[in-house]
Amino acid sequence: MRHFLFGRTGLRVSELFLGGTPFFARGDGGAQRNHRHLLDTYAEAGGNTIDTASAYGDSEEVLGGLLHGERDRWVLATKFGLTRDPDDANAGGTHRRNLALSLDRSLRRLRTDRVDVLWVHLWDRNTPIEETMRALDDAVRAGKVLYTGISDSPAWVAARADALAEWRDWTPFAGIQVPYNVAARGVERDQLPMVGHLGLSAAVWRPTARGALAGAGGGAPSEHERWAVRAVAEVAAETGATPAQVAIAWTRARRRWVHPIVAASAPEVLKENLGAAGLELDAGAVARLDAAAEPEPGYLEAFTAEAETSPGVAGRVEVVPRAGDRRRGAV
After folding, report:
1. Element (H, E) at 27
2. Active-site residue, from 42, 56, 147, 180
3. Which helix (H) or strand (E) holds 122?
4. Residue 325: helix, strand or coil by DSSP?
5. Model confidence over 74-97: pLDDT tens digits?
6. Distance between CA atoms of residues 248 and 98, nearest Å
7. Strand, coil or helix: 105
């Protein structure tokens, strides 16, 4: 598995992240052995980046036990912001108080003195982004956090946070987390273009659409999803890969700074998903998958494209754009 630089930092992260949700409950001896097998399967594939959260049940405690004695070889990420206690009004949110209490709790559960990446779990409309960014910067300066990111927020929030960090010499976000797969491409409107422009990394969850693109999803898919499932299955049959591998590989096919978060409760399923790291889809396969479930561009993208090609609006002078991707390559 290859490793890439995390955002505008020198931190090396594997191209596939390991999701912490399968470690949700501690369970009995059999569950603990399965947890160990999952972690070993990921490590044997060359992975080094684990993504968990304070809200994932016992996940932090389980991983803290598994990583005991080998903590330093892992890039360990967790999240804060979702409530720790539904009866406490201040036990959730991204304000300074909750950040401090949640981070200390996560460090205890993970049995470590610092986390490599601390993600804001969800945009908090009630806390000024200035407060969150300053509190995160204080955690970095205290040595409890090394890098930061934000999950599930509008592009303008992350962009404003980046500008604030630049102006005030605070620690900027190095990455974002968003849902992304062949059948769900709404983030291509704003979030992913922002990531490319600012030189961030994108950790993407649900790369197989809860298993639907792998042929294992529950419930009745929409017509939009059916087209995507069919296209993924066809490309898988032609390449000799599994549908899950094709779906995961597609998320990285055009953007090397996208890191799918893979998670599975069974080691054999995880091993299959990790096989996506070695799968290179050709341009024809990528184009077919793109066309299977194209996202609605939205008025702004369509209007801007029309304006750029209209002599009456843009003039007759051809403008050659500069390369917009500030990301660096694999290491």
Report:
1. none
2. 56
3. none
4. coil
5. 999 999 999 999 999 999 999 999
6. 34
7. helix
Query: At a CB cut-off of 8 Å and minimum separation 6, what does 13 contact?
Result: 3, 4, 5, 6, 48, 49, 75, 201, 259
DSSP conformational letter for 25 = -
Encoded tokens for 246: 């094709």
| Residues 6+ positions from 172 with CB-CB distance below 8 Å | 8, 148, 161, 162, 165, 166
| Residue 182 contacts residue 247 (beta carbons within 8 Å) | yes
Looking at residue 322, its pLDDT comes to: 58
User: Are 184 and 238 spatial neighbours (Cβ–Cβ below 8 Å)?
Assistant: no
Please identify which residue in the block is written with the tokens 């992304």.
Answer: 180
**Mean per-residue pLDDT for 41-47?**
98
CB atoms within 10 A of CB 282: 11
Residue 56 annotated in active site: yes
Q: Is the pLDDT of residue 329 over 60?
A: no
Structural domains of the chain, with CATH: 3-211+250-280 (3.20.20.100)
Write out the two tokens for 56.
Answer: 């994932």
Buried b (16+ CB within 10 A) or exposed e, 17-56: bbbbbbbeeeeeeeeeebbeebbebbeebebbbbbbbbbb
Of all residues in the chain, what percent carry a pLDDT higher than 90? Answer: 84
Interacting residues of 33 by C-beta distance below 8 A, sequence separation 6+:
none
Residues 6+ apart with CB under 8 A from 261: 16, 17, 18, 19, 51, 177, 203, 204, 205, 207
- DSSP assignment letter at 321: P
Two tokens, residue 125: 């409309």
Q: What is the pLDDT of residue 61?
A: 98
Tokens of 288: 């077919």
pLDDT value, residue 321: 63
Query: Rounded mean pLDDT of 100-127?
Result: 98
Confidence of residue 303 (pLDDT cuts 50, 70, 90): confident
What is the distance of C-alpha 57 from the center of its chain?
19
| CA nearest to 208, candidates 156, 244, 258 | 244
